Amino acid sequence: MPVCSNSSRNNWRRRSGARALTGLLGVLLLILLAGCEPAAPPPPLRLGTSPWLGSEPLFLARDLGRLDPREVTLVELVDVGQVVSALLDGAIDGAAVTLAEALRITARDPNYRIVLVADYCDGADVLVAQASVPNLAALRGARIGLEDTALSAHVLKRALQQAGLSLRDIHIRMLGPGEQASAFAQREIDALVTYDPTLARVRELGGRVLFDTSSIPAEISDVVIVRADLEQDWLARRTRALLDGWFAATAYLRDEPLDAAQRLAPRLQLDAATVTAALRKTVFPDRAANGRHLAATPPGYLAVAGQLKSTLVETRELDSSAALTPLFDRRLAAALYP
After folding, report:
1. What is the pLDDT of residue 269?
2. d(CA 120, CA 281)
3. pLDDT for residue 33
């Protein structure tokens, strides 16, 4: 058996100690290098949208380079139902929705706040019927298509009320935006609750408007909501970037309407003239108006939401116990609209 001398053992110990020290220094170096690596950039705000002319300033802002996708990512979904599901599942951080839908969402989850009153619809939502339907009263027993949203149901009920009818007097068929024009063309429905760009296509098929929301303007508006339980500094920075892009785009719509319509037309699959006509039915309140709506004491828009809630409760689209105040955070709004 081999015999190890004292000097051999000492040399081995020195070499082992050197290797251990080298290994320790290597670990420390890795830790230091890891600490020197740049931190991952904060994620963007994920904002859900569905096809609707009123949310197009978001895409115009992106097209103009005024909405950085590293700060705000637009998540394009098929319809409002998908937007609501994505919100409640936590797949997105906020969304452009109708005020009616915002009230329904908040009744299920109180962690959402309105940060923008995006638009008012002055006749943009309509009930359009086949040419053979002369008036609202003739809709008794009719097949009516609509999207499965609080707003569409509300518009339909208000239209029927004008003719002394109710939902019991008609047959409803739920149709997504991508199905509506085809169902109308095939005469699978007698009438349809819709809006542009579908409305423009249905009119080309001979549809005639029997009711529009110009008679109930205070009840129809769109808002942007965000989750309030996110990291506050990050949320404030991302929301300011969203608002800056939005107001830059609506100013461009006002100052350069022809070029804006030409930019939006391909996305909407409409010609620029049709887009321009549709935009005339949509009012985009500016930053100062939003400040009055959301940052005043009390918020001016709280009364509008209360009026709409009363109507939704009356038509059984919302429970009377649903609270309005969670949607309004005056401190957040005051920081966004100083």
Report:
1. 86
2. 9
3. 52
Q: What is the pLDDT of residue 215?
A: 83
pLDDT along the chain (338 residues), means of 10: 40 43 52 58 93 91 96 94 93 94 93 95 90 97 91 88 92 94 97 92 96 82 94 95 98 96 91 89 92 93 88 82 90 92
Helical axes 257-268 vs 272-279, angle rounded to 10°:
110
Closest CA to 123 of 194, 192, 214: 214
Say whether 126-217 and 45-121+220-336 share the same fold. Answer: yes
Tokens standing for residue 288: 């100062």
170-194 in b/e form (b: 16+ CB < 10 A) is bebbebbbebbbebbeeeebbbbbb
Report the predicted TM-score, pTM, of the whole model to 2 decimal places. Answer: 0.74
Measured CA to CA in angstroms, residue 262 lies from 30, 58, 245, 274 at distances of 55, 15, 19, 10
CA distance 80 to 83: 5
Q: Has domain 45-121+220-336 been given CATH number 3.40.50.300?
A: no
pLDDT score, position 24: 52
Amino acid at 327: L
Please name the fold of domain 126-217: D-Maltodextrin-Binding Protein; domain 2 (3.40.190)
Pairing of strands 72-76, 45-49: parallel
Pairing of strands 208-212, 143-146: unpaired
Domain spans of the chain?
45-121+220-336, 126-217
Q: Write out the two tokens for 29.
A: 């170096």
Determine the number of helices (DSSP H) and then strands (DSSP E) in the chain. 13, 11
